[in-house]
């Protein structure tokens, strides 16, 4: 934490804004999002934090004693480890700080098992050295099981220490190591043979004028050196951009990563200011994609009219209606057309809808021809909640109320009217390769919320519902805004 400077019209309106978390997602310096007993928690500077029952709508209520700044949290076994900076970062007028850890059996403040252990100091700074003990984060090496903590701000170096994941104490004899400069609020992650150090660069705590952004370098060792995409060491100020301001939010900082499924990852952060929420600091959740071996924030999904295109073949999802030709005046075969070129109108809904059946219409894939039976309006389903990273969506044919729906025999259909029924609600997630997974909230006749079945291309022209498989292009779709 650095204190340097203290309908179509409906569709167009929606598409002009990204969809941020709902409720009251106001937080600064959020921890990585942690799940506990079906709810999601993130802690922030000042001792409090947010809770969400579905990962989409957030409210105050998470409890963390000790106040201080920039905590992180992680589930280890059947317990939760929380780490935070007691002071530092210019708080209380100085840069002498302490990094503390504590445990809890649960994060639910209403549980009888809710009780934090006494905090344990694992690092400190005296206010004079070249490090500021604040902004800690937790990382367990998936290859060795060893736990590393990085901490520090612009007021010196970023340092790394090792703590025991069983006790939360500093490993005896461990000596801190400098790993980066010119950043703060660091985090470590592992992906495909590399260790990545992510740091927050720029200025914070100045509302809409904050310039926070998140950069990264990588190493084949958890201890660095962490080198960026053009060979610069983060200890010399290097770092490749992961996310910067845009889409009416500025100042992304305090990276956290959550792996939801194979190929389904999200990153959390705060935005120093959301222009659509009085410039407040808010929780941000974005898809995390991997491009050429580097992490990158995916875009916030926006409402609009889309072609839903199969990654398998490139065919488009459509209503299984009869093909209607577009009339076109053409010169006789073999003769040159000497008339002045002019635009041809796209096929209109009014040209074809009278030929469509009145009841349910099946779904297939076909060449994309800009036809009305291929143009899907995707928008949040108002009042229907969400999941970690997004709201449930309705998918309807543009200009109609005809909705895409799941059936009891794990097939797709379109129903004449969108009613908001659970089988008409869709979970849309950008995968780490940039494609999308599309899942119905429920499948009729199956108990509970669907977490396994997605729209699946069983054949080039045959979409169905089948178990998600990241390794297969059958599970993947491209959403191309029209």
Describe this structure in words.
The chain is an all-beta fold and 482 residues long. 2% of the residues lie in helices and 42% in strands. The chain is built from 2 helices and 35 strands. The strands form 10 sheets. Strands 1-5-4-3-2 form a 5-stranded mixed beta sheet, with no helix packed on it. A 4-stranded antiparallel beta sheet has the order 6-7-8-9, with no helix packed on it. The longest helix has 8 residues, at 8-15. The chain is elongated, with a radius of gyration of 25 Å. The relative contact order is 0.11.
What level of helicity do the residues show? under 10%
Radius of gyration: 25 Å
Topology, number of strands: 35
Distance between the termini: 41 Å
Unreliable spans are: 1-18
Which structural class matches the secondary elements?
mainly beta
- On the 0 to 100 scale, the average pLDDT is 93
Could you give a short account of the major beta sheet? 5 strands, mixed
Short description:
This protein has 482 residues and is mainly beta.
């Amino acid at each position: 934490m650095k204190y340097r400077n203290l309908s179509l019209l409906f569709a167009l309106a929606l598409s002009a804004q990204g969809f941020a978390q709902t409720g009251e997602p106001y937080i600064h310096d959020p921890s990585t999002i942690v799940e506990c007993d079906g709810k999601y928690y993130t802690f922030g500077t000042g001792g409090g934090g947010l809770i969400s029952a579905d990962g989409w709508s957030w409210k105050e209520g998470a409890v963390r004693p000790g106040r201080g700044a920039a905590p992180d949290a992680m589930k280890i076994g059947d317990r939760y480890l929380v780490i935070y900076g007691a002071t530092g970062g210019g708080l209380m007028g100085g840069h002498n700080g302490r990094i503390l850890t504590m445990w809890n059996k649960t994060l639910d403040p209403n549980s009888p098992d809710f009780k934090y252990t006494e905090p344990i100091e694992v690092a400190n700074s005296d206010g004079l050295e070249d490090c500021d003990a604040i902004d800690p984060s937790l990382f367990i090496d998936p290859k060795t099981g060893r736990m590393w903590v990085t901490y520090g701000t612009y007021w010196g170096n970023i340092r790394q220490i090792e703590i025991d994941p069983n006790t939360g104490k500093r490993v005896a004899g461990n000596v801190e190591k400098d790993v980066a400069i010119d950043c703060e609020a660091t985090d470590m992650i592992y992906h495909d043979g590399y260790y990545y150090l992510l740091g927050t660069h720029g200025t914070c705590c100045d509302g809409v004028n904050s310039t926070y952004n998140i950069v990264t370098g990588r190493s084949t060792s958890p201890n660095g050196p962490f080198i960026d995409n053009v060979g610069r060491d983060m200890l010399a100020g290097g770092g490749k951009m992961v996310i910067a301001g845009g889409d009416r939010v500025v100042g992304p900082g305090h990276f956290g990563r959550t792996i939801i499924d194979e190929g389904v990852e999200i990153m959390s952060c705060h935005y120093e200011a959301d222009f659509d929420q009085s410039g407040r600091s808010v929780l941000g959740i974005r898809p995390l994609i991997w491009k050429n071996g580097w992490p990158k924030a995916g875009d916030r999904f926006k409402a609009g009219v889309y072609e839903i295109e199969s990654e398998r073949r490139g065919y488009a999802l459509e209503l299984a209606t009869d093909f209607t030709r577009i009339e076109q005046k053409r010169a006789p075969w073999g003769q040159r057309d000497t008339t002045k070129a002019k635009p041809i109108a796209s096929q209109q809904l009014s040209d074809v809808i009278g030929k469509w059946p009145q009841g349910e219409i099946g779904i297939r894939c076909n060449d994309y021809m800009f036809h009305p039976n291929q143009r899907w309006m995707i928008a949040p389903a108002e009042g229907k909640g969400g999941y970690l990273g997004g709201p449930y969506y309705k998918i309807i044919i543009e200009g109609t109320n005809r909705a895409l729906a799941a059936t009891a025999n794990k097939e797709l259909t379109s129903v004449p009217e969108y009613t908001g029924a659970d089988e008409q609600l869709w979970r849309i997630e950008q995968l780490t390769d940039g494609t999308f997974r599309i899942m119905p909230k429920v499948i009729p006749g199956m108990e509970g919320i669907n977490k396994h079945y997605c729209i699946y291309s069983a054949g080039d022209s045959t979409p169905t519902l089948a178990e998600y498989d990241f390794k297969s292009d059958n599970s993947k779709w491209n959403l191309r805004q029209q």
